[in-house]
Description:
The chain is an alpha/beta fold. It is 61% helix and 9% strand. The chain has 2 domains: 3-90, Winged helix-like DNA-binding domain superfamily/Winged helix DNA-binding domain (Arc Repressor Mutant, subunit A); 95-271, 3-Layer(aba) Sandwich (Rossmann fold), CATH 3.40.50.10490. It contains 12 helices and 5 strands. The chain has a 5-stranded parallel beta sheet, with helices on both faces. 27% of the residues are buried.
Amino acid sequence: MTTRPVQAHLAEVYATLPHGEQAVARVLLDDHPFAALGSLRTLADRAGVSAPTASRLVARLGYASFAAFQATVRAAARDHDRSRLHAFVAELPDPHSAAEDLRAGLDGTLAAMTGPLLSSAATLLAEAGQVWGVGGPLSGLAAEYLVRQLSALRPGVRAVPDPTSEQARILLDLGPADLVVAYDFRRYSAATARFVRAARTRRARLLLVTDAWESPLAGDAELLIRLPRDAAGPVAPLTHEVAVTELLLVATAARLSASTRLATLDAITQTLRDGA
């Protein structure tokens, strides 16, 4: 059975389902195939129903068990991903064309960083009490790069940790003087959104770097850096995020008297190396 029949079957029987099973079907359709890949209990909790209700829907679809249903969904997802990969490889441009596209997209991204926008962002980064960087599975790399470089220029710069218990301790002390720098691109990170919105309730400021389609967090941002549509692609986004981050760092460094701090950092680093 392929992915399409599973979704089509759910859509076909949806109107005839009891209310509880409809709730499960909605979760499966809205987040296909991922909603089907966790536990039965997790699926039921997301739908707000009991595990037996979710199990009854699976049986109604003709599966002997939830495990059998998951096996079908996984197999269909693998087939779908394999087909997409073959199509992607078949449509790959020649290397020269790909390089030109990447260069053109990068030029567009840098052009979008206007002087006033860059100046406002650098002022936030230089003057905030504490700066916290956060991002998704891939965009988090750009956030980590910002944190690593900016922490050499000024104190009070940290990456937001993953454990919620540690995030809660950070949120406890956040206030209007503090700045969260969030990188959020499709598929937008639910974990990033949860932390950022909690930070905003603590009145922390938000600098958001996102794409042309805009993160759901765009409305919460005090300052929004939106990469142009031609920054999209399988490789380009991280390239563009890092380029924008470099611009932010250069502009921020110009607002800070960091020479003494950098010299001290070099001396401490050398001491540690000599001690080793």
